[in-house]
Design brief:
The protein has 2 helices and 5 strands; from the N terminus they run ββααβββ. With about 90 residues, the chain is an alpha+beta fold. It has a single domain, classed as Ubiquitin-like (UB roll), CATH 3.10.20.30.
Length: about 90
């Protein structure tokens, strides 16, 4: 089963200058773990050490936000996961 992940271009330098990837998994979290095997530094920019998403990250599957079940959200063959950086400031 192939699931596609797209990351912000600012993260590309941590992933061999690529912004899209083919991964495998039954959930968003499993797909990110699959991506981590190839690009561990990239996933550190997305996920916290405790295993959840960083506060500055949102996930969309096929154009739909999956908050608050980001990592447990099921995916199917051909789905597209998009990692979005949330702009923060004060």
């Amino acid at each position: 089963m192939t699931v596609y992940i797209e990351i912000p271009s600012i993260f590309a330098r941590y992933a061999g200058n690529r912004t899209s990837f083919e991964t495998e998994g039954r959930t968003v979290g499993e797909c990110l773990k699959d991506l981590e095997k190839l690009h561990p530094d990239l996933v550190k920019l997305i996920m916290a050490k405790e295993g959840g998403l960083l506060n500055s990250i949102d996930i969309f599957v096929n154009g739909e936000s999956v908050y608050p079940r980001e990592l447990s959200r099921p995916v199917k063959d051909g789905d597209k996961i998009k990692v979005i950086m949330i702009i923060q400031g004060g």
